[in-house]
């Protein structure tokens, strides 16, 4: 247990301890007898799940990711901490949307070497990725259509389960990233299939790659000030907690169920600014709030010599920022009794398959003409998500320090 990380997110005890204790024997037996494919398995949450599976000695564990560097680190991590498994472990570096995966899938099926569990952690997760129509189209392709492609592969494998990670931002989304994840859920949960599908919505993973807290570690290394909004509140889980939540959904979730962490005194909203102060304190620095970005940039060395560090906190005014996060909506049925610290959203087949096909056809037509705008993509989202409350301010996080 990383007590220092817990303190930085305002907690002293990890989540899911009792639930994990009750389920560990079942988890170990299921993993030991199963074959796993993990796509996007070298990112922060994907690699944490890979580590949890590896620790339980699976029959087969194959990992695919586009990041060569992250794959190398993932392998170094499990080798340096857990060693080796009796089964087969292999890491592949290619894009699930590319021809390499087509060949991989074809050969896997022809050789009769399918998987019991197909897990997808690939995602474009940044709100800032909606700032231009080209990056936004890539976000939709990865978050929605790669997921659909991998579900089709899981069906061809006759897998016991297809799992894909979602986000708390999919509940009442206000940005295109959250909207894409909600549409992903609709594609996953809206089809009759012999392959059960489950997913998980969880909070921000503390200090995950590309996150604002992770950026603070880079700022310290590069002798630069810390910056954060002072009015945006988020839930935070550790990478291991996120991995445990995923394991519950993967190994125990029923078809069309979404797992999320129950709110409790141990899981509560905190602001990024207060978290930045805690982070600096853990490093032995006192946070000194500056009036402007320029002041913060210019006073790093002055303050660092006094064991202080400049910070710039500001009210959020960028597109798509949600004031607070939520894990379920008032229209979703929730099972509160199955676990002590986990809630489960139970879904029926309520999605209009015709609308999903229309969305897919509309985006395919845009790609074929090589012409689309953010407005056209937003319109396509709104047809599927009639209550989509997109917050457009004309500013993005790229305009902030």
Q: What this model shows, in words?
A:
- This protein is an alpha/beta fold and about 400 residues long.
- The protein has a single domain (about 1-205, about 235-270, about 320-400), classed as Rossmann fold.
- About 45% of the residues lie in helices and about 15% in strands.
- The chain has helices spanning about 5-10, 15-30, 45-55, 70-80, 100-110, 135-155, 175-190, 210-220, 240-250, 270-280, 295-300, 300-305, 355-370, 375-385; strands at about 35-40, 60-65, 90-95, 115-120, 160-165, 195-200, 205, 225-230, 235, 235, 255-260, 270, 285-290, 310-315, 335, 340-345.
- Strand 5, helix 7 (about 175-190) and strand 6 (about 195-200) form a beta-alpha-beta unit.
- Helix 13 (about 355-370) packs antiparallel against helix 14.
Based on the model shown, name its key terms.
alpha/beta; 16 strands; about 400 residues; Rossmann fold; three-stranded parallel beta sheet; nine-stranded mixed beta sheet
Summarize the structure.
The protein is α/β, with parallel strands linked by helices and 401 residues long. It has helices at 3-8, 17-32, 44-55, 68-81, 99-110, 133-157, 176-189, 212-221, 239-252, 272-282, 293-298, 300-304, 353-369, 374-384; strands at 35-39, 60-65, 88-93, 117-120, 161-165, 197-200, 204-205, 226-229, 233-234, 236-237, 257-261, 270-271, 286-289, 308-314, 333-335, 342-346. The chain is globular.
